[in-house]
Amino acid sequence: TMPKEPAVLRQNILDTTAAILACGIDPKKCFLFRQSLVPEHAELAWILGCLTNVPRLLRLPQWKMKRASQNSEGTVGLLTYPVLQAADILLYKSTRVPVGEDQVLHLELTQDIAQHFNKKYGEFFPVPKAILSEL
Length: 135
Hints:
Largest sheet: 2 strands, parallel
CATH architecture of the largest domain: 3-Layer(aba) Sandwich
Radius of gyration: 16 Å
EC number: 6.1.1.2
Mean pLDDT: 91
Structural class: mainly alpha
GO molecular function: ATP binding; tryptophan-tRNA ligase activity
Helix content: 55-70%
Protein name: tryptophan--tRNA ligase
Organism: Ploceus nigricollis
CATH superfamily of the largest domain: HUPs
Low-confidence stretches: none
Family: Belongs to the class-I aminoacyl-tRNA synthetase family.
């Protein structure tokens, strides 16, 4: 949600990919792809954003904390980031999502968005459940 220098961003993508592979992820057994090259993420985020009300996003604690750290000048990208997260989850019709405690409210937003979409357009998205780790 913060502007990055293009060269730094490209290097970060390569470094992250290398770290994932170094952790032992086997690309023969899983899909490893650059999400920004899949336009459906942004397209679904737009659709879901049209179904999500602004007051709900403004109540999220992460918005309040990040906005405060940006001298009360939160960006639209920061405000709508949880909707993009919902699109990332729902695009693949995920049923279980590993999350940390700090992301539970974002997953609850995802659940609400899925239920709202399904009520309006018919059963399409499974309502994902959180997988919380004790670590």
